[in-house]
Amino acid sequence: MVDRTLEVSVIICAYTQERWTETVAAIRSVQQQTVPPCEIILVIDHNVELLACAQSQLPHEIIVIENSERKGLSGARNSGIAVSHGALIAFLDDDATAEPDWLERLQRCCEDPQVLGAGGVVEPLWLEQRPAWFPKEFYWVVGCTYEKPPRFPVAVRNPYGGCTCIRREVFETVGGFTDGIGRVGARPMGGEETELCIRAKQHWPQRHFLYDPHARIHHHIPAKRGKWSYFCSRCYSEGLSKATIAHVVGSKDSLASERAYTLKTLPLGVLNGCTDTLLRWDLSGILRAGAIIAGLAVTTTGYVVGTLRQSKDVVRRPVRVEATQLDPLSRVTH
């Protein structure tokens, strides 16, 4: 039985009309949840045409607002948090659809007061066939889960940002998402949820985030994200993002999971790829092994470059979100 006092606000951020069909599908998947949210907030990230489209075409119960901060996913999410009312705040990507029990499962995880937030599995929904060379160990490049899910919920450093539910208490205490970290438009940066969760764990060392393998969403992957050029661009950008996060919260916490991934997951992936080619005559296996090595090299290059230029970059520290920051009657709807 789900605790009905833990009402959930769902925030979806959108920046381009190219994904309007996917955005509408994302909203509908939230409307069809077994445990409905108390509100659905769509944040438009500095796109006047998309804002007008959303205001004119979506049902009136969907709250449509503009990003009131600097352009980017971090600012858009913070804008949504500022007008939300739920004790829990869930985030769903605008190009993903949630399974009907997604919200119920995340909400149930958060019934434990020691749980700061919870996330689930992001499954890829390739709009065209997945390239044979694309290694599953690098599914994070397309915003999806890359490891085999556990059987039961487990504690993690951070859940995936587009498939997560976090206590309002976190934002009121340690602040929102940090401006200067995360995606801005089509620029393939990331890591805003990682930095937030590390900050929360540093404040509450005895509390944790959960990963529920049964809370699932499906992430639409267009053909262009299966191209080698995007793969390299995303890897390089991830390296830059990791360098920024390490600068903000320290390398010990920010790179703990990455060390295990680099020393265990990737070597095993290379071995499996070579084995597929040598024993199963799958020529794409050696390509996947090569992609893993190249991806690691490009990501490392991005991290080194990002580390060297940290002194020149401006990262705006997050502001705590006050519980009464915005009068409910002042929310922008349509």
Automatic annotation (TrEMBL):
Signal sequence range: none
InterPro entries found in the cross-reference section: Glyco_trans_2-like (IPR001173), Glycosyltransf_2 (IPR050834), Nucleotide-diphossugar_trans (IPR029044)
Gene3D superfamilies found in the cross-reference section: Spore Coat Polysaccharide Biosynthesis Protein SpsA, Chain A
Domain Glycosyltransferase 2-like: 9-174
A Pfam family this chain is assigned to: Glycos_transf_2
Record-given protein name: Glycosyltransferase 2-like domain-containing protein
Organism of origin: Tengunoibacter tsumagoiensis
